[in-house]
Amino acid sequence: MSNIRTFLFPYAFSILLLSFLSSSFVSQAQQKYSIFGKVKIENGSLDNTIITIFKNAVKTDSKMVENSGKFNFDLEFGNDYMLVFSKEGFVTKKVSISTFVPADILSRDSQFPPFKFMVSLFPAYKGLDLSIFDQPMGMIMYDKELDDFDYDRDYDSQIRDAIRRAEEEARRRAAEFEAQRLAQERTFNAAIQLGDINFRAKKYEDSKIAYKNALTIKPKEEYPKTQIQKIDALLASQQAEADKAAQLAAAEKALSEKYAAIIKLADSQFNSGDYTTAKTSYTDAL
């Protein structure tokens, strides 16, 4: 166990197990087995990424991943651990670590170089078969032949192809999703631009239609909502002014018709020689 070595593992999926020796393990006996690693989020940030630790199937700890993505844990010998890496909207991955070591080995020398591994979480796209991730992505345990901890190669060979297919499909979906997002972004921006052009030209109805089209793409965007509110206020003001003008026009028309009727009556009275009555009618027309 005292030899310094590096493991190069032959599989290329998201959990990479690399063993290295730390100088602190040379100077004193180790009472726990240490693991180090890093979490990577594909097409996302590390915000709200959680590592949950189970010891012999019982939850013992849960921690938020730091901004660096790095983590480290010291695990007691003689237990089965499960590390669960999760983030809402992303596939959850698990790593199994068995710290059982024969008692005679531990009593002789408990210095084991720690493992460092990486876990990559990708978005859990709708329609993906993620059943393979119900199983641990890797199993780490003591290997008698190596007299050290190593990953379980038999287990790896069983799930390697399934993991590779799932991750390839996830990346394909990610590329499709990104292409769709970019297309939607272009359509949204075009609708906003058309809305703005019509708004400046005071073509408010056309502008409103364009902003509504933008909202069908991005329903939560505030800008088109605000512009529609402005348009509604402007249209309401225009309608109020139009109604007022119509009322004035109707009043003027009624007055004009009344005047014409009175003048016609007065002229008829005048022509018939009824001058007194005609005078009264003409006076009413004033």
From TrEMBL:
Segments forming a coiled coil: 160-187
Keyword set includes Transmembrane: no
Signal peptide: 1-29
Alphabetical list of PROSITE patterns matching this protein: TPR (PS50005)
TPR repeats: 188-221
Protein's UniProt name: Tetratricopeptide repeat protein
Keyword check for Nucleus: no
Species of provenance: Ancylomarina longa
InterPro entries in the record: TPR_rpt
Keywords, comma-separated and alphabetical: Coiled coil, Signal, TPR repeat
Domain of life: Bacteria
Lineage: Bacteria, Pseudomonadati, Bacteroidota, Bacteroidia, Marinilabiliales
